[in-house]
Write a structure and sequence with these properties.
By secondary structure, the chain is an all-beta fold. It has 1 helix and 39 strands. The chain has one helix spanning about 295-300, and strands spanning about 1-5, 15-20, 25-30, 35, 35-45, 50-55, 75-80, 85-90, 95-100, 115, 120-125, 130-140, 140-150, 160-165, 175-180, 185-190, 200-205, 215, 220, 235-245, 250-255, 270-280, 285, 310-315, 345, 350-355, 360-365, 380-385, 390-400, 405-410, 415-425, 425-435, 440, 445-450, 450-460, 465-470, 475-480, 500-505, 510-520. The protein is globular. Bound molecules: (Z)-L-Arabinonhydroximo-1,4-lactone (6LW). The site of (Z)-L-Arabinonhydroximo-1,4-lactone has 15 residues, from strand 11, strand 15 and strand 20.
Amino acid sequence: MYTYQNPVIKGFNPDPSVCRAGEDYYLVTSSFEYFPGVPVYHSKNLADWTLVGHCLTRREQLVLDGARPSGGIYAPTIRVHGGRFYMTTTNVSHRGNFIVTASDPRGPWSDPVWVTQGGIDPSLLFDGGAVYFTSTDTIGGRTGIFLCELDPESLERRTEPVFLTAGGGGRFAEAPHLYKIGKYYYLLLAEGGTEYGHMVTIFRSLAVAGPYEPCPRNPILTHRGMDAQHSPVQCTGHAELFEDHNGNWWMAALGVRQLPGVFLHNLGRETFLAPVAWDEDGWPAVAPERASGANDEQSVSSHRGGVLALTMTGPLPGEPAARCDCSPGEADWVSPSGPDFLYIRNPEPSRYLRDPQNNTLTLRGNGMALRETEGAPPVFLGVRQTEFDMAAQAEVTVTEDGGKGGLVAYYGPDYHYAVYLTRYGGVTYLRTVRRVHDLEARSERVQIYGETATLRIIAGKDFYTLYWLDPSGNPAELARGATAGLCTEGTASMTFTGTLLGMFCERGEVVFRGFGVGGTPK
Ligand code: 6LW
């Protein structure tokens, strides 16, 4: 048995799906309006995951034109069969459900095969020679989980969708995953909506088309009804059930780490791991040793399901690596590797010029401000914020009059805090902008000498603080924005992502040297 830390994949990585190939595990998550799409993580021990690529790396696979915040790519499913990997997901902003395949999950993945069963949260089951496809949809006035069969070669739909279930009574029965385990077909669902009422339920049948009976202990996982003091983990749901190569069972699920003491989160929905045990009636129990770990009598009575925690134990297939959650000092700025970076919608490659020798990235603006949602995407490149306390820094140079660019803590076009340089009449100025909903606060221009400044954003549980390093190298605060302003719960429309820390250029050419992220500097 090993002790491990949750979330096993930090930063906005919701709707996890896992498959096993021998002793290697691959996990994919939703990516919404960001490009590339559907990150692929790899692990050998289930506690430590490494981003090894993306399923959707070409415009032919991923058209995000016009995708609204939290549009684009919803929940994915990854499966392996006959030595080939399959990933199915939904582009809610372009044509719906599709499947891509690969011989290596690191890529390249194929062009899409579009599936003519609608809805979201598609999943696949390979059962003998059959390939079953499920999704949550409304067909003929019925809303719930539908099943059809695909041609094993062409992957085209070859049967009419049949209704399986509307779930166990929770709203929004979604996230279906169908498994053949022993003599039963098990159907795993999310219900209650992906917020604080979220839960995982499971059903089974002797026939793939049903009828499905509910687990008497549904929901088998939920944090609904738990207060923040006793459970910083909330909103657990949208899960995947899988067996490791030692025959132990696990559940990956999305969850939220709340900001201390409030029902708010700014890091997005993250991926959590829990051990699973099967009971004598053939039903799974999640984190069985914690089922009684709920916070109080009331919760225990409402908590027939398991409860996830930030620290858990389980029979991992390998020892977890030691985690350094210490906040490194100045010297610990980590330049994110290639696959960590995300663009807003489909980027124009000519606007992103990397010079590895000089460790610089030159961005060429297209006139689109970060708040824009129509037309070409803003010129932006960022990484997921993975800790409440985290910092981003870069040396920024604006090379021409009219140029504008800098660093940004970005949740979306209406939710971001930025510190940047602009240049007019040969003079360079520092400015900040804080935008929440339609309210925007811009600082006065601060003139600086030369055309270069080192900018820094420090994320904290209460504030994002925007700095520049003065000529003596001392951080000087320019502005701060409430962390509550970049939280999912506060967005005007329903959103599913999390905050990114990154670079942007609105106009002209801006050179970034040494962009890095790290723990809060001492
Ligand atoms: C996803 C749905 C959900 O498709 O939210 O967590 C949607 N549950 O199942 C977007 O993540």
